[in-house]
Amino acid sequence: MAKMVPVVLCGGSGTRLWPRSRKSFPKPFLPLIGDNTLFEGTLARCADADSFGPPIVVTGEGHLAHVDAQLGDAPGASVIVEPMARNTAAAIAMAACRLPPETVMLVCPSDHHIADTAAFAQAAKRAADLADEGWLVAFGITATSPETGYGYIKRGEPIGDGAYKVERFVEKPDLERAQQFLADGGYSWNGGLFAFRADRFMEELEAHRPAIAAAARKAAEAGHVEGRRFHPDAESFAAIESESVDYAVMENTSRAAMVPASMGWSDIGSWTSLRDALIRDGSGNTVNGRAELVDCKNVYVESDGPRVSVIGLDDVVVVVDGDEVLVTTAAGAQKVGKLEGAAKQ
Fold it and tell me: pLDDT grade, residue 3 (50/70/90)?
């Protein structure tokens, strides 16, 4: 098995979990599930020295203090400090330019939760083997409900044991299509986890987005090192077009593969997805902090101080954080990031 280097993508504003998550302290750095933060959990999943090399964290200036505090003194770890946000294609390209060409990169978002770490490790090993053979591999998360907030991967023909070609990537569907995907059984969620060799990724990026590849190489070549931090050249980096790795590479390559993964994955992309990832009582309720619920179902309550009382509600989220209070239906939880308070903080 090829040894993998985790490339941990650490960006975003965290507004979908406002008011708990703020721009200054977004969700990767919060202990939302258990005692460890989502970022620490990501690092812990990739800590086996027999399978993984030291991680590369790609982040921005605004998150450096949190990264340094939670990365600690991890041996060999490095941090790429982006001068500005330019989406995932640029972030991955910067890491690829900093690695030996034959290195297998395991691209991991820093703010996802995976309950079954053994299943993750098994899928990662299969993905690494495929990547070493030149495939660009996506993790196909087993779809358990007709989610409209995720992209999907359509499984193609088998590639050996436990892997498939990607027939196509599918944009976030409406509910009717999502229900069709679930019934079909051949579609998986696209969880943003990928594995590929550094040289193969750059070859595909150069083939499909040559301007991004050229600017990334220039930014890497003209960058400078400060301790374990690498700073790309700001002027060259600013010239990179902002585009996701899905659009720039994965949807265009003829060598896209997928490894099925049933591992208790969640992107913790809303208060309801956090509720669903936590332990719930017999009525589907979750309480974090001082609260009393009477005749409630599927209610999530979190309070950092004041006692919260809820009576007779179904599918509602109540969050108290400092002097901010959020009350929303489960359906409205996807719109939290649009609130004026979330945008400002």
Answer: confident
Q: What percent of the chain has pLDDT over 70?
A: 99
Distance of CA 40 to the CA centre of its chain: 13
Could you report the per-residue pLDDT of 5-35, keeping only the tens digit for each? 999 999 877 789 999 998 888 999 999 999 9
Strands (E) in the chain, as ranges, are 4-10, 56-60, 78-82, 104-109, 113-114, 136-142, 152-158, 164-170, 187-197, 224-226, 229-231, 256-261, 265-266, 286-288, 291-294, 300-303, 308-311, 316-321, 324-329
Mean pLDDT of 70-98: 96
pLDDT at 1: 53
Domain segments of the chain as ranges: 4-266, 271-344
Residue with tokens 């294609």: 89
In whole angstroms, what is the distance from residue 64 CA to residue 79 CA?
9
193 contact partners, CB below 8 Å, separation of at least 6: 106, 107, 108, 109, 112, 138, 139, 261
How far is it between the farthest Cα atoms of the chain? 62
Q: By C-alpha distance, which of 132, 39, 113 is closest to 278?
A: 113
Say if domain 4-266 classifies as CATH 3.90.550.10. Answer: yes
Other CB atoms within a 10 A radius of the CB of residue 23 amount to: 16
Angle subtended at Cα 175 by Cα 170 and Cα 176, rounded to the nearest 5 degrees: 90
Euclidean distance between CA atoms 132 and 280, whole angstroms: 41
Rounded to two decimals, the pTM is 0.94
Peptide bond into 101 cis (omega under 30): no
